[in-house]
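Regression test attached.
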Amino acid sequence: MATAHSRAAARVMISPAVILLLGWMIVPLSMTVYFSFLSYNLLMPGMEEFIGFGNYEFFLSDPAFTEALVNTLLLVGGVLVITIVGGVGLALLLDQPMWGQGIVRVLVIAPFFVMPTVSALVWKNMFMNPVNGLFAHLAKALGLPPFDFLAHAPLASIILIVAWQWLPFATLILLTALQSLDKEQLEAAEMDGASALDRFRFIVLPHMSRAITVVILIQTIFLLSVFAEILVTTNGGPGYASTNITYLVYAQSLLQFDVGGGSAGGIVAVILANIVAIFLMRMIGKNLEA
Amino acid sequence: MARRATGTRKILVTLAAWSVGLAIFFPILWTILTSFKTEAEAIASPPSLIAFRWTLENYVEVNARSDYFLHFMNSVVISLGSTLLGLLIAIPAAWSMAFVPAKRTKDILMWMLSTKMLPPVGVLVPIYLIFRDFGLLDTRIGLIVVLTLINLPIIVWMLFTYFKEIPGEILEAARMDGASLWDEVVHVLTPMAVPGIASTLLLNIILAWNEAFWTLNLTAAKAAPLTAFIASYSSPEGLFYAKLSAASTLAIAPILILGWFSQKQLVRGLTFGAVK
């Protein structure tokens, strides 16, 4: 059993990590809270004054906020639907016996390792560009007028790009879960005359439900913070058509230098993320016997 | 007896899986192919898949025109630096939580995880101002610190799940034989922990290499890693597809290769051990 000596040593070993993370969380976050109550613009130094909830009123009543909130929900929801449905389908497919399974797996996983700025620029220029993009060539070959994706469907285009990046993650995790399924159970069900659809609904899907929940929660955390893909493709536009909360806060603080307003937006983002985080923490906590 | 997959079924599954796999991989393949075209061929209509004059001129150009090597080294230094620093802090912490669990160990682990849930934009303004005031904007050391802190929870968690799998009886046996804490760590634990540490290292290099919020917001030119350098290709519209492709291929190749080695660890690391 652990002695008093080793307990003291353990506390010493754990403290650097705890202190650093505590500092990382508390110092900047309390500064953000503090700034959010100030009228504070970087272009007007020395003019800071306490204005209570003024920034929040301004930020939350700004039509751009409503639009960004809707865009954030559409972005997160759209990518989740595509990656979960696609991921379940792909996991089922990749779990079958086939030739070259290892290579197919590698091909499917690859997009996850592409840095966000590269995938966004490659899609923007080489696929979605209305003049030189591959989709434009394809449209021309079919006798259709080319479509300017990022101008006319900016949010949908970004959803497509982000879904392409996250589909491998969902597939990989769902495949891992599927592979731990007891195949004899499936065979027994088949012998008892259960159809393929029944086997999927009553055995496979319940088995994967936990992994699906984990994928949804973890992706949501990352998807709420999508930034680079928007920055290099549309800069949030046209208008606010592809601005999400993260991008709106960035624009408010670092492009318009409105530290107070940006900070209020940041706190709103933190609250939104926390709602998701609570569910995720419960899921993971249940699995942990420390 | 396992159900014998009929030949036709296997052929169909193989065909379907390969088609989907190639479709998903296609944008990467297309980027790699385009990087070997001339700028004129890169936008030719109709485009050709492989029947073009292969050239390396884009790779030469990208290196000659911009300081590509500097940005590449920035990526290497920042991702490796933040990962090693993170391991240095996380290994003792994960070790003590796995082998000397206290009442609050679970709470501490969950709390560390919760720091990862903090959206970066919630602390963007203060971090930016702190960096400005301390002269850390556009420095490698500044980014190393931030990336270490944002990835620290993942590093601690991954190591914890690996260390947890090392049987505690072995440590007790060593202790009975009179091994000191130091002996325990160096001679008993370390050899068993190396695979877990290596996987953690790999996954974190990948995460740090591809991180594109702080690297974009806290660097300008000097310390910009490849994520930020590639973003600079977003402004000029026009005949730069081949060069963009060459720069992109160089930026993703190392991590694509590392990534293929770490598929399994990816699942464990990114789900905080919830799916293994």
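Expected vs. actual: identical. Chain A is about 75% helix and 0% strand.
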